[in-house]
Amino acid sequence: MTFAARHIGPDPDEQDQMLKLIGYGSMEQLMDAAIPEVIRWHGRLDLPEAASEEETIAELRAIAARNTVATSMIGLGYYGTFTPAVIRRNVLENPAWYTAYTPYQPEISQGRLEALLNFQTMVTDLTGLTTANASMLDEGTAAAEAMTLARRASKSKSSVYVVDADTLPQTLSVLRTRAEPLGIEVRLVDLDAGQALPEEFFGLHLQYPGASGAVRDHSALVAAAHAGGALVTVAADLLALTLLRAPGEIGADIAAGTTQRFGVPLAFGGPHAGYLAVRSGLERSLPGRLVGVSKDADGAPAYRLALQTREQHIRREKATSNICTAQVLLAVMASMYAVYHGPEGLRAIARRTHERAAAIAAGLDAAGVRVAHAEFFDTVTAVVPGRADAVVAAAAAAGVDLWRVDADRVSVACDETTTEAHVAAVLSAFGVAPVASVVSAIPASLRRESDFLTHPVFRTHHSETGMLRYLRRLSDRDYALDRGMIPLGSCTMKLNATTEMEPVTWPEFADIHPFAPASQTAGYEALVAQLEAWLAELTGYDAVSVQPNAGSQGELAGLLAIRGYHRARGQAHRDVCLIPSSAHGTNAASAVMAGMRVAVVACDADGNVDAADLDRKIEAHRDDLAAIMVTYPSTHGVYETGIADLCAKVHDAGGQVYVDGANLNALVGFAKPGRFGADVSHLNLHKTFCIPHGGGGPGVGPVAVRAHLAEFLPGDPLSASGEHAVSAAAHGSAGILPISWAYLRMMGPEGLAAATSVAVLSANYVAARLREHYPVLYAGNDGLVAHECILDLRPLTKATGISVDDVAKRLIDYGFHAPTMSFPVAGTLMVEPTESEDLAELDRFCAAMIAIRSEIDAVAAGRWPRDDNPLVNAPHTASSVAADEWSHAYPRSVAAYPDGVDRTAKYWSPVRRIDGAYGDRNLVCACPPPEAFED
Ligand SMILES: *Cc1c(COP(=O)(O)O)cnc(C)c1O
């Protein structure tokens, strides 16, 4: 069997049955009818023929072999770490964790929500602040979010953001990218050299310890900044904080950074979970997802995303951030690393790391090599006038990578993997010998006195048996693709094949530092170049960058490219971005972050962009039009025929066309945005190209452009052109690119086109089967939808009071994850089956939806009261149906085992319906004490 036949759920016989039901004789007929000819591309993709799973693994082995795994002592925000094997196998390599979706349906996400709450608790404890969110994309973007948060919260009118010169270079690069369009002036100040703070500024960014390794007492600077009304961000290393005074204890308002060294592989720069924490009073300005504690219908404590409405809509044009997909899987790993080691274990790792660094400093010092800073945690900067290259080369010859700061300085970073042998090798590269006596270089005034990770969860699961069972207990609470279909419209929850996943943890991919010398990364460079070329072929664009580490970041990169283009042509005044009212929330948010003004274009009754309103808006903004941002197929799941016209009109007015490519699963092999008129798109590799959602991240959001925009693509954050970097690492989340590479390699041109056809077939099959039970909103040619369909619940809600929420929660009783709720249309469900679900699973879903319709009818007919029926009481837990008292209007069997549910394979929701409003009023975002869970 080919891989494509494994990836695509329905087999040819099933496809024929499905075609028959929707009234088409063949797949060609269906696709010819569904896809408007104006966008249709009839060629054959210029990609290699499909390879088998075994051949693909062999090819990836060969690519991986071109990378060299060295002992990396480069540091600069990326450190060697031992991923505990129990976490690697049972989280990173476990589909129960990696195939889950973002926890918007909290009842079926209690496991990952608990893990994320542990993450938030870990970050708040270590930073000494009060509230942390559930992960950021990396340290650079977390620092950028901290900068804009400071701007919003500061009373100062100044637009100056002061950045300490001892900041990580990649962070500085991302800060500059994000500051410029917002009119923020990043001012680099060498605080160490005694340069003074400016008169006025709204925020101050400090690195702790500094990029050079120096540990400094920042309290006086913090006080000075506060005196002028500025907020202070401390970018802190969490391992160092086990020994050093916490940012909150020196008065910082915000802490930002990465959790990579808590057991997450280097992976050439990502994916890793960034973190962001704030002091009390700033929690409601915190961007990103925040897990909070609330209660369920029985009053039991339950977790859910707090302030969720705010997050889901990303506040549109009032947006303060565009972050959507974050780094959940990696945050889970980092939190479990803390759970497994506990506070004592972390302190021991930190002490050992520090001792190695101190041993290097002592050896250098004894031999008369000057050490730049007397006080440090893990990184020593040595001053070797004119000899830096020679030292780095000598270390490299011994298999150790050091960092060349400049011709006269070399820095050496230690981590938990550093051994005495590494210390000896490093010293030998400097031409000196180890010494016996080593003293601590942690300044007494900055020693941490306060305790941390005092919650029992960090003091319980320290044996491997305990850890294994804790992980299993949490993952058992969650519904992921390993249990059944997740028909989330716009999210493309398709198969994440095991063969695609396997290379991710190979050392040749996992253990490469993002700043490793080019001679060690030829495999990665080849993989990235090939993947970018394939994506360009698939989309019809001329150049692609995989640097953006989520769709939102791809959007920002694409809009910045448009901005750069207009500026380069002397048209800097073009700053209006047209966005249809149905757009995904990130679109408008990204436009705001790119310094654009948003003008909303209405949609017509068919869900298409309203042509008359488009004309009006173009006319109104003819002189300052920068771009239009449209999703194709539309967010309504329809192939709009007006797209080519739309592109032409916007171009005529001097604007650029951005096509949001998150829905590319409906186009691959059949249409190319770069050919039907668009100038730039982002793709979501975590949707169309099989990177698993990881419970809400990681993702990759490549940006693809036509030739005229190529020079404005994101640059290497370490190079001189780093002004354009949108992520901290040149290739963003490089470590998960082998997944998409493997998918394309195994599918080949025919397989990819077949996947698109079956995705469209399945959506139309579901629409056809459910149409008589729920109206299907919007359709294109011939009454066909694209790869998803919208079921309208509003008439039923009006008649019975049963809401989309009730249907979504009742689906849990039937063993399903709900479709996308109330996006893009309030009161509806959007279903995207993808090509990977076989006919039996599609039918099981349709049967559940039809059974739910008859339950709604029973409410309408008055057989069940409106306030006591299986819909409004859903989901039902085992303990609620096993209760000694049962006073409901329907029997227990209907609650627990409704029509068609297999009694031997029942998924039980661990909690009943969660009260979100209660949690928002009583915001609790750290682990509650164990007593909270007592009956
Ligand atoms: C998923 C999605 C996005 C955002 O992607 P993230 O990776 O979550 O940032 C943007 N637009 C559309 C249409 C999407 O479906």
UniProtKB/TrEMBL annotation:
Enzyme Commission numbers on file: 1.4.4.2
GO biological process, one term: glycine decarboxylation via glycine cleavage system
GO terms assigned for molecular function: glycine binding; glycine dehydrogenase (decarboxylating) activity; pyridoxal phosphate binding
GO cellular component annotations of the record: cytosol; glycine cleavage complex
Residues making up the signal peptide according to the UniProt record: none
InterPro entries registered for this protein in UniProt: GcvP (IPR003437), GDC-P_C (IPR049316), GDC-P_N (IPR049315), GDC_P (IPR020581), PyrdxlP-dep_Trfase (IPR015424), PyrdxlP-dep_Trfase_major (IPR015421), PyrdxlP-dep_Trfase_small (IPR015422)
The Glycine cleavage system P-protein N-terminal domain, residue ranges: 6-430
Keywords, alphabetical: Oxidoreductase, Pyridoxal phosphate
Residue ranges annotated for the Glycine dehydrogenase C-terminal domain, each copy included: 755-876
Residues annotated with N6-(pyridoxal phosphate)lysine modification: K687
SUPFAM superfamilies: PLP-dependent transferases
Catalysed conversion reaction: N(6)-[(R)-lipoyl]-L-lysyl-[glycine-cleavage complex H protein] + glycine + H(+) = N(6)-[(R)-S(8)-aminomethyldihydrolipoyl]-L-lysyl-[glycine-cleavage complex H protein] + CO2
Cofactor: pyridoxal 5'-phosphate
Role according to the record: The glycine cleavage system catalyzes the degradation of glycine. The P protein binds the alpha-amino group of glycine through its pyridoxal phosphate cofactor; CO(2) is released and the remaining methylamine moiety is then transferred to the lipoamide cofactor of the H protein.
Family affiliation: Belongs to the GcvP family.
Name this polypeptide is given: Glycine dehydrogenase (decarboxylating)
Organism: Krasilnikovia cinnamomea
Gene: gcvP
